[in-house]
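2024-03-11 09:14:02 INFO worker-7 job=invfold-0412 stage=load source=structure_tokens
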């Protein structure tokens, strides 16, 4: 949905990477490790990340041995990954992981690739969660938000939900890798279900956070760049992109404790609409905050007294 995605979609159509030609003859005449990177039409950093994945070597090793001939199998694997990247596949799916808030999360096409923008929501949550509080992450996907909260704040109890079984399975895998104890003890719970359906009537949270789908169904960006490869259910939300935000706001009041917060990520042009939805339901102190790039991206509010 950003400019880089759009630019990449254009360049993917223009360029075809022919690194496979370089490995002709089953390895005879294979380029050096560094030449593979330099001749690849991808941004240098992306090429290095893919070469790491293709070779199983760390970046430092690849740079230190840059002038040596590349292993033919790795060069072939690199060519294939580079072409898929040029065709638009998110790099996180190609290498199977993405860093979020300083931790490495497994990523598959079952989930949205965690975005740095969402760290704004996490920063708000960490700053506003009371000691020994309860937090709920609706639509957890890879588990990026919930697991980061559980890791950063061992005093919090965290519930994470998603309608997608495949997403929840990946969130479980990430939790087993990043905070196994929280999962074992039930301090972190993963629940399947549609928005509020897996929350019992009497459950209250000090903090409810969500990065729900918020792109309009007919937004042309859904047919461009990386977004083409991500689950539509994680991206699109009705004719105006607000269906998921409406459902969450409509059901939130009974589940946010007095003095607690509801914090929602949304598109940079949706702040006013989200504040209006909150106001219509009687939420107070609704305010929209900017992400690190200066775009209004999260709106937070407190329940009426
Ligand atoms: C934009 S993704 C966010 C994923 C993750 N929280 C993140 O920030 O990277 C939205 C998530 O909401 C889930 N979702 C979509 N509709 C849902 C619904 N009706 N109930 C529960 N989860 C839903 C999707 O499966 C997806 O994992």
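2024-03-11 09:14:09 INFO worker-7 stage=emit residues=305
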């Amino acid at each position: 949905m950003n400019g880089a995605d759009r630019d990449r979609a254009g360049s993917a159509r223009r360029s075809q990477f022919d690194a496979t030609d370089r490995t002709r003859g089953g390895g005879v005449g294979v380029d050096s490790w560094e030449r593979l990177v330099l001749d690849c039409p991808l941004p240098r950093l992306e090429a290095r990340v893919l070469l790491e994945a293709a070779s199983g070597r760390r970046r430092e090793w690849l740079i230190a041995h840059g002038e040596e001939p590349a292993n033919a199998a790795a060069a072939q694997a690199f060519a294939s990954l580079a072409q898929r990247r040029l065709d638009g596949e998110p790099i996180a799916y190609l290498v199977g992981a993405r860093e979020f808030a300083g931790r490495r999360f497994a990523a598959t096409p079952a989930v949205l690739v965690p975005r740095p923008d969402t760290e704004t929501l996490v920063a708000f949550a960490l700053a506003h969660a009371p000691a020994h509080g309860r937090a709920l992450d609706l639509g957890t996907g890879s588990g990026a938000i919930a697991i980061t909260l559980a890791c950063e704040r061992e005093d919090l109890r965290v519930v994470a939900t998603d309608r997608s079984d495949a997403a929840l399975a990946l969130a479980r895998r990430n939790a087993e890798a990043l905070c196994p104890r929280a999962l074992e003890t039930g301090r972190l719970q993963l629940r399947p279900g549609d928005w509020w359906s897996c929350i019992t009537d009497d459950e209250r949270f000090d903090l409810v956070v969500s990065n729900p789908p918020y792109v309009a169904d007919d937004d042309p960006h859904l047919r461009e760049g990386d977004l083409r490869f991500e689950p539509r259910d994680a991206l699109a939300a009705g004719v105006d992109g607000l269906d998921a935000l409406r459902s969450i706001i409509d059901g939130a009041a009974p589940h946010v404790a007095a003095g607690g917060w509801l914090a929602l990520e949304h598109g940079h042009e949706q702040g006013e609409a989200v504040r209006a939805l909150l106001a219509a339901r009687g939420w107070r102190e609704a305010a929209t905050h900017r992400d690190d790039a200066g775009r209004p991206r999260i709106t937070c509010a407190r329940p009426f007294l």
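2024-03-11 09:14:09 INFO worker-7 stage=report msg="The longest helix spans residues 72-86."
2024-03-11 09:14:10 INFO worker-7 job finished
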